[in-house]
Structure formats: C-alpha cells, structure tokens
Amino acid sequence: MKRSKTNFENTYEVMHEKGHSPIKSWTRGVPFDQNSKNQLKNMAKMPFIHKWIAAMPDVHLGKGATIGSVIPTVGAVIPAAVGVDLGCGMMAVRTSLRADQLPDDLSSLRSRIEAAVPHGRSVFKKGIQGRARDKGAWSDIPDDVLKAWSPLNDAFNIMTEKYPFLKNTNNINHLGTLGGGNHFVEVCLDEHNAVWVMLHSGSRGVGNRIGMHFIEQAKKDMERYFIHLPDKDLAYIPEGSDMFREYTLSVAWAQDFARINREVMMERTLEALHDEIPIPFTSDAVAVNCHHNYISRENHYDKNVWVTRKGAVSARKGEMGIIPGSMGAKSFIVRGLGNEESFCSCSHGAGRVMSRTQAKKEVSLEQHIKAVKGVECRKDESVIDETPSAYKPIEKVMEAQKDLVEIVHTLKQVVCVKG
Catalytic: 348? Predict the structure, then answer.
C-alpha cells in the first residue's frame, strides 16, 4: 500500500500498461466495469497526461471521457473530456429551520419550488424538443435574472462577435433554470434535523453549444493534420494556439454562468421556502457552491497543469464539497483532505450502474415508488431512469474514498424536484 505526502493510507489501485500513463482508481468495494476501464486506458495513451489519471469511486462510462475521472494535462486539453455541461455542479445551503417546522404536507412546497424554478423541457413534436414557450426557460426575463446576467453580459457580447451562432442559443433565458436528467432541487434534513436546500445544475443551453462547437473544431483539426487517436472523442486543442485561448476563455465564461445559475435558483428556492413557511428563518452566509465538470489551472507535483474534472470535485485540504446520492439516498457535505494522489479530488456522486435505457427496462414503477418512499417527488415512469438502483450504493462510494474527504454532514432529502 502506498502513502501520499500527507502520510495517510491510500486505498487506490493501479492499472498501468507499458508505454502509457498509469491509472489510479479509488474503486474498492464498488463496481468498475470493463468498458470504463477501457475508456480510461485510451485516455492514458495520450502523450500529454501529467503523472497519471485518477478515477473516482463513482466512475462509469461517459461520452468523450470516463465520468468520475481526473485528467491532468500539460500542453493540451481535450474538449470532449470536459464535455458539454460546462461548469455543472452543486450548491447547498443550511437554514435555521428545523424538521418539525416543515409543513406536514410537502406537496405544496414542491409545487412552490417548481413554480419558482423553471425545469424540464417542452416537447412539441414527436422526437423534436421545442424552444418557443419552453417550460424550462424564461419567456419574460425576471428582474433578478436580468441583474444576475449583468456580470456575464460584456464577455458574452465579445464571444458572440467571434461566434455569432451563440446569439441564437438559450442563454439569459436559461439563467436560473434547472434543466432535466439528473439535475434537481432538494430540501434535505441533516443528522441534527436542520433543513438544507441543495441543487444540481450547470451552464444549460449556452454551455452545451460552446462545448459542442469546440469538440467539433478539435475533431476537424485532428483530421486536417492526420493525427490518429485511440478514440476520435480524444481530439485535443494544443496550448498556445488561437483555438486554445478561445476555448479556455469560453469555458471560463460558461463556468461562471453555471455558478451564477445555481445562485439564482438557490435564492428563488429559499424564497419559495419563505412563502410556504410563515416562520422567520435565516440561511448560512457561506454556502457550498462547487463545479464537478470543468477545467482548472492548478499546480501538482511542482508543475502547472490543466486539470479536467469530468464528474469529480476539488477536494483540497479543508475545501468544502458536495457528494449527492440518488433519489431516495443520502447525500454528503464533505471536507477535502488534500490527497495529492487524486490531484486533490473526490467523487461527484454515486455513479451509474445502469444506463437510462436499462433502468427503464429493468425497474418497475412499483419498485421505484418503494425506493423513494418518504420523499415528496415525482413518482411516474418518466423519472425511473433516475431511480436509486440505477446508481452505485452511496455508502460504499464514500467508504472507497475515505482518504480523499471526511464527512461533515449527512443529508437525506424530503422534497426532490426534477426536470
């Protein structure tokens, strides 16, 4: 067993093929399928990996790169590894409310949150998702959203001069909106019965379009220069190029959008809580707001590198983070231990063990309803792909990374809003 600079015992395992970078995985006691291993091995073949790739316990197959991976690079970045939900992440706030101050009927609270935060997406024609009058976007931009957009506006205008197609994206009309899939807003209770609000979302339509543009441009460059890759989704942008500069600036903007998006939704959710509960309460001045799908310029092992966290959270020593479970499962507020072996990172959640299609085929509605018993949430067939059994057991995920983070609070949701 190896030890890190912080002199605590690590629980990672190593895969290493000759001529390629090692892969260190914190996966003891949790599923780690062969497809994910193969995808990581392809990544390890890239010549600009710094030291090794770190795989978190929620690791599972992804598009472009394995979800739950930490990829440090020197001299290049891989846009598809960063993905298209740029800056996707979590925010959590503890309130002064207690569990017994919540209403007995939580359905009204869920309805208030759903009314305050646009979520999901309208479908107007079979197989085609519509934009006009989209229930998941603003038609008339509220004043608080206009105010929140202000620090993003100038840089957005500069980007649209370079990339006019961004004008036609959902940008300001997606600020303060949730989206669908595994994005959520939850009201939770901690181990002391304090009430928390926790949410998960990213850079929405505009971030998706930025990510897709640069992924396609990187692929075209690989073809133009006859660069052969183990996987076409590993197309990269070399540092020093004009495209690299444009990419990193655009991603930084999208990550700011994602952070502000969560802040707007949090404020609106807390207002909904105030409207529903006629009891004065406060919320912590310092909230946890962390990305888990992003790039960052960091120093590791005495070298400045680009770190891509594809479904992973920064966990520097003392840094606070959020690791959510699935619907019906526990979630955790954690404090980083600063383990350099993982490039100071931890998992971003439980990690899927079933694809969305597989979950809908194998899990019945009755099983789903039983799994989310006690949670005020949607209990229909459209959310079965998010059912708890589609994910790894969060307790085992936490055990596998006990040398990466320490648990500060354990949360259990009582209300869950999904798109």
Answer: yes
